[in-house]
Amino acid sequence: MKIAGPQTNSIALKLGSLTLDVPFFQASLSGYSDCAMRTLARRFGCPFTLADMMLAKSAANPRFLRKACFRPVADEHPVGAQILGRNPATMASAARDLVAAGYDVIDLNFACPAPKILRRGRGGAMLNEPDTVIDSLKAVRDVIVAPVLMKLRIGANHKPQSLDNFWEIVTRSIENGVDALVIHGRTVSERFRGKADWDLLAAVKNRFPDATIVGSGDIFEPPATVDLMKRTGLDGFVVARGAVGNPWIFRDLRCVWENRPLPPPPELTEQRLVILEHFERILKDYPEKKAVRIFRKFFAGYVRRHPRRKPALLSLMKTKTRAEVETALNTWYTDTYPNA
To answer: What is the spatial distance between Cα 18 and Cα 79, in angstroms, rounded to a whole number?
Structure first.
């Protein structure tokens, strides 16, 4: 891996016509990466985010794109849209409409391991159909002038045929002009169990040194990312689960890649202010009760930093109104939080 200058780890990541000043960005996170989360990630230093995963057949519906989890806003560019489907023509139509709606990048998802997605033959199930995957890439490539990424896993499972399908998709997608491959180092059947196999991702980069290969899986500790990139030779990485309830990860990653000292972990007061900011952003897009339900998903991520994680989480999970959320935060995120 080339280091840009003697006193910095900073290195650009090129995604087609889009150049990022650091080699990482936020992944699309189903059920999480709405406008509120993306905006907060950008404020903490993330150079590029992907919106919540969306079905290609729904993406052309204007009402669908007005939803907070999907709509791009004026000040968050660059922003990408991730779509999944199994019909190349539908994928192409969705990509065209999403670029027209303001998205800067299209990401084709052939990796999602969720059972409800697999049952319909979408996401990771498509790794068993290399021809359809490549037809979808070519169809999308033909109708838009924007970077096209492809999200993969290293196979449907660990059977030899699955690995053959993976390498066929990788090879043919590069031959057909994909701008970057974002590869999660687990099979679809593994979901998120065990450790991601970054050695196989390194093998992809070794075989295709001129292609842009972005790794995914188990990015939680910013200082470890420099060694990981040096070891694998990959062009960059995405932050997925590590960003849920943790926008500070992007601040810390920037410090690592710009060779600056890591700041101290945020104190409880700062954590409370950031959590409230996140909650207020969600309240702008949803009625109060729904906003609280949506925000509960983030509590587990935020309380990982709390000295009394379990009781703090239980208190937050019981909330049903804005006032109750604020009361719980004011109780637990001060220096006088309950110790008993």
So the answer is: 11
CA–CA dist 20, 299 (Å, integer): 30
Helix (H) or strand (E) holding 277: helix 268-283
Q: Which residues contact 6 (CB under 8 A, 6 or more apart)?
A: none
Mean pLDDT of 89-101: 94
pLDDT single digits (tens) 5-34: 334 455 799 999 999 999 999 999 998 999
Helix (H) or strand (E) holding 20: strand 18-20
The boundaries of the domain holding residue 251 are 13-257
> Burial level of 181, CB count in 10 A (0-12/13-18/19+)?
buried
Q: What pairs with residue 110 in β-bridges?
A: 152
| Residue 68's pLDDT band (cuts 50, 70, 90) | low
Distance CA 119, CA 314 (A): 34
Give SS3 for 254: helix
Token digits of residue 57: 């057949």
Q: Does residue 151 lie in a domain region?
A: yes
What tokens appear for 296 in the block? 């509960």
From 225, 257, 289, the end of a domain falls on: 257
3-class state of residue 108 by DSSP: strand
Phi, psi dihedrals of residue 179, rounded to the nearest 5°: -80, -30
pLDDT at residue 8 in the model: 47
